[in-house]
Amino acid sequence: xxxxxxxxxxxxxxxxxxxxxxxxxxxxxxxxxxxxxxxxxxxxxxxxxxxxxxxxxxxxxxxxxxxxxxxxxxxxxxxxxxxxxxxxxxxxxxxxxxxxxxxxxxxxxxxxxxxxxxxxxxxxxxxxxxxxxxxxxxxxxxxxxxxxxxxxxxxxxxxxxxxxxxxxxxxxxxxxxxxxxxxxxxxxxxxxxxxxxxxxxxxxxxxxxxxxxxxxxxxxxxxxxxxxxxxxxxxxxxxxxxxxxxxxxxxxxxxxxxxxxxxxxxxxxxxxxxxxxxxxxxxxxxxxxxxxxxxxxxxxxxxxxxxxxxxxxxxxxxxxxxxxxxxxxxxxxxxxxxxxxxxxxxxxxxxxxxxxxxxxxxxxxxxxxxxxxxxxxxxxxxxxxxxxxxxxxxxxxxxxxxxxxxxxxxxxxxxxxxxxxxxxxxxxxxxxxxxxxxxxxxxxxxxxxxxxxxxxxxxxxxxxxxxxxxxxxxxxxxxxxxxxxxxxxxxxxxxxxxxxxxxxxxxxxxxxxxxxxxxxxxxxxxxxxxxxxxxxxxxxxxxxxxxxxxxxxxxxxxxxxxxxxxxxxxxxxxxxxxxxxxxxxxxxxxxxxxxxxxxxxxxxxxxxxxxxxxxxxxxxxxxxxxxxxxxxxxxxxxxxxxxxxxxxxxxxxxxxxxxxxxxxxxxxxxx
Length: 671
What we know:
With 671 residues, this protein is of the alpha+beta class. The relative contact order is 0.08.
């Protein structure tokens, strides 16, 4: 095919679909989006030149339906299909079907994908080509007894991995033979649900490893290059949390050796287009092949920012038959320009074991894009984070000349971020980028899981000056609304249109009610226009010259002038002091609290999802914390446990059943 494509279909959704659309638009390529019922008003649908429905909300009913997607490609006149990442991106059968239909698959050849689609097969292939691999078992015989014997041979600790997995799904660490059988069953079940195949492999677990991957690129003219490394050692349960390029751990000599191994691995399978060779690296610099991801990676922006490249454009050009640029082929190593860091903003609750969330983004404020800040997102304010897909809100990527400067850029970017609606991980990320294990570049892949409490903020009483600042923000917000009230036709000279605190029988007094860390706080305020006297239980503050302008609050509080980032609306106040964020909910000035009772007699669904299995029946005696059921939600397995010891009165769900949030699943007999 001569020249670039005129029209490309993007067989994906969300952030990556929007990302591909941006590059296509810059190159003058028309785009075709596909969407499920849940995504009818999604951003990728709005951004594409045209969009076609492909089925129900569940991925199996839409984004995994290759035949329907191919039919849309033909009807729309698309010449090529970009699969993004996830879904069908590493499905060799789909790649073959695309080619058979006379279209171009923007990715590697199906033959290369088949060699890498199985972790077991990839490991054997790398051994044959002298690429270092971790000792383990990759055989097809999946008899549990044989796997248990192989585990004893390899030695503990070891890791069980889904052979056809990815994205951190279907992985378990086992530290003793007694834990092996239960972990094997759980891993196989998760793999079967996520990938349709339950084959696993075993490998020795390297203690305190680092995760370092190399971006590779090949064309159809025999050229294969690497585009330097990315470090992704900050992980939680094998999910990458922070990615950066270049790695602060990799020396020039180690980069050369690992880069040569990455290119050799790609050349062994005649690789074309974008791919990533992932290595596990010991503390002494010893490295072992993990896998090759035959697609564009989520973290590709850090490579783009440090090399001033557009990898999606390279993908399109290579797929269209062009050779890689001579400047890349000629140089064995491309020098990095500065340092880039990426974080992923998720709708999840770190305080509840990172339980994925869903719901409407009533507020979504992100930093302004610039030379130093890049936002890759798939939702905007007012959109809904769906229960059916990955709960990513956006990726924050920053660049600067040094790692230290890039970390500071990221702190500033996070401080300018506000998310209201589903709970998010933004506060967790803020603590992450200030932690010594990150700033000192010593973090390994298991650090977060071993020391998670260091990254989760403990509930604490709000300092007096912050409580006073939050009250000022509310008072100033109320006063700014007064002219709008007058504009509606009310008498502007009436005391009811004034926000100076006048009340019949209570001259100059207003009550500000806030909720912080679950506690209701009431402040009595006298004054107006930025000058206030504040009193609350156990505290007092005198405020002068408070101003709320352009997202900043400045005020003299008890003789000290302070400047804080501030965002205030009808329901919330968010303050940021440069080190941490402090959130307050606005409450009615006069309210009562209902008492809670009865919660210990039932187990409810924490979010919408599907019941995988139940482990108890009516009449069974259970102990507190005992596993009662497992449900699948937001691509994760959630274990539901007994809230107390007792006897099961009723099990109200069946395996396979889809349940809504807060649905009662299991009841215990009342004490």
